[in-house]
Specification:
two-stranded antiparallel ribbon
């Protein structure tokens, strides 16, 4: 099972961590693992958590600021996951990826091998895009896309996207009030991306 958790699910608008919600999510994911499921998390939130941790009022102004917020926030994010999951005897592992890691066949194979070993050891992989080194030219896009790529790569049975958007739309409904809801997909096409 791949579970993608969006920034708005993990944090308040201020960027500060939503502790109650993260604790509840970790409890549910721990139960899924205890029931014998292999679970992989794809987690957003590093930039927002870095912004909240540094208590800087202005939003990031450029790519360098977003990358610096991500560097601070990724530590916060993994600290929270490690601390909460440890209470349920779940070991977590951090995997940071760039688009190049998934495009390059040798690096993709190493990712697949690492994932297989972590799952064999019953470790919970927590995957995020490596925002501190990604650039707009090589960026995967968003963690929904990353979760789909990971799901395909590991042959997942189920992909769950936890977000503040209620389904699949032809564009971002937060930015486009005329975005159309896509109720069903029978066959994937590049037009959907």
């Amino acid at each position: 099972i791949i579970i993608k958790i969006g920034t708005s699910t993990l944090t308040y608008a201020s960027g500060c961590i939503n502790i109650r919600r993260i604790e509840n999510l970790c409890k549910v994911i721990s139960d899924l693992k205890n029931a014998g499921n292999e679970v992989i998390m794809v987690s957003s939130g590093a930039i927002a958590m870095g912004h909240g941790k540094l208590n800087i009022k202005e939003p990031p102004q450029n790519v360098a600021e977003k990358q610096a917020f991500a560097a601070v926030g990724q530590c916060e994010l993994m600290y929270a996951y490690d601390k909460i999951f440890s209470a349920y005897n779940i070991t977590v592992a951090q995997i940071l990826l760039t688009a190049d890691d998934l495009r390059n066949s040798e690096r993709h194979e190493k990712f697949d091998n690492t994932m297989a070993q972590l799952l064999k050891w019953n470790v919970l992989p927590v995957i995020n895009e490596n925002d501190t080194v990604s650039t707009t030219e090589i960026k995967i896009g968003d963690n929904d896309t990353l979760a789909a790529i990971v799901a395909e790569s590991v042959g997942a049975d189920l992909l769950v996207l936890m977000s503040d958007i209620d389904g699949l739309f032809d564009s971002d409904p937060h930015q486009n009030p005329n975005a159309k809801f896509i109720e069903r997909i029978d066959e994937w096409s590049d037009e959907l991306m």
